[in-house]
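fyi for ur records
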Amino acid sequence: MYKKTVSNTGGGMGESEDQKGHVAALAMIDTFAGVGATCFDVTWTNADGEQQAFRGRCKTAYLARILPAVLDC
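which gave:
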């Protein structure tokens, strides 16, 4: 369902660690959607594991769209 893309920006070819994380996160969403999940309850935490935000019932398409930006924060 989600397409992995790799681009060459003049440096070495390959995926950055950020891109690998995005692909893995989207694959996880796709896996759950594949068995019938249509929405998720999402808790954002900081590096210390402290809750920073919560959003209930995020639709699968919405989460897939915003997740890369959230992971980049």
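Helices lie at 17-34, 60-72. thats all i got for now
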